[in-house]
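WARN no homologs supplied; continuing
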Amino acid sequence: MIALFILIPLIVLAALGAIWKARPVHAALLLALSLSLVAVLYLLLGADFLGLIQFSVYVGAVAVLIVFSLLITRPSDETKEIARRPQSILAGLICAVPVLAVLVYSVSYSIGSDEVSESSPSQFELAELGKSLFTTYAPAVMAVAVMLTAVMIGAALFARDFNQRES
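OK structure emitted
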């Protein structure tokens, strides 16, 4: 229980650091730290499957992809982006506040309803979910991986400076 009281503020601080860091590479590394701490939280709560999926998918793939794409495509001079940052905070809040309101409403509605429907199963078997993901849906997972690779290559080509392409 004490580990949770230490871990949860660390997750919040890493997530806030990822939001407020001016340099995108630092923000991506803090995002990877936040996702890693969430995986540790899953492992501490006994959700081993979710914790391992969190490590392998989000930390091992998505965060590393973000860091590498930033390192490949970002120009060395980020002064324009840092100067533009205060203007983007308003747009971010306009997008984030409705999402937060829907999440708070959904959680409060699900906590307030004590009824459990008869059609929903009483237990959710994670082993069955893992088997279906790696057998039935394996081609879809592979297709998404190929599409993400193609998007990464396309983003790297489009993000290059025009003067670098000519020389």
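The longest helix spans residues 79-112.
OK
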